[in-house]
Amino acid sequence: MFKLVLLGPPGAGKGTQAKKISEKYNLPHISTGDIFRRNIKEGTPLGMKAKEYMDKGELVPDELVIELVEDRLEQDDCKDGFLLDGFPRTVNQAEKLDEYLSSKGNSLDLVIDLEVDEDILLDRMIGRRVCKVCGANYHIKTMPPKKEGVCDVCGGEVIQRADDTEETVRNRFEVYQRQTAPLIEYYQEKNLLAKIEGTGGPDKVFESIVSALGV
Ligand code: AP5
Ligand code: MG
Description:
This protein is α/β, with parallel strands linked by helices. It has nine helices and eight strands.
């Protein structure tokens, strides 16, 4: 079982690939963005706090994120492996993750960095739609649901994410460059980074990930 991190700018395809990876390798998929969105939907105090930052495209403060991820990693299904999507996102988060794993005698196996040009990302994100109920992903041009506004999987309502407007997306890119991109070097120095070309369709990207994992 693998202990993996999926890194990459907003819209790089982390969620899309995470679904495929977690199915093939039987790994729990831990997306901090999804956890926050669930909390927002349920109106929890954490969700209310996170929403203030997410709606602006800013990062949620480290102290709220790190504890949340450590609690999740404590659960039984993460004992042998996991797939982190969207965490870590700052050098501080990465250091805390390393400390946590080494305190358990563990370490990461690989960090998969999805690389996609910014103009492609913008188009992907502004066109993205998601199911409000099951979270299935669509794109108005490349992957529309069979019936407009209705999820193919569960029949739920298909909507635009609150942080997928052009203005917020541009800020998310800036935040990514400033706070998250330094992780590329951080993991390169530890010899953990696998750079994966993130364009060319989800199946092709997945093939490259599988070959980087070597099984
Ligand atoms: P999060 O939910 O993690 O968002 P993100 O990193 O901005 O990335 P996205 O989920 O938007 O994109 P993705 O890479 O998953 O791409 P997807 O597969 O959907 O975080 C949201 C917010 O939460 C953050 O801004 C922050 O506020 C907060 N947050 C979360 N984690 C945090 C942390 N650790 N610390 C602090 N704050 C945190 O694909 C995008 C689109 O492209 C889809 O329409 C898809 O269908 C399409 N697509 C995917 N792959 C392909 C392909 N190969 N070819 C063509 N189209 C494709
Ligand atoms: Mg995602």
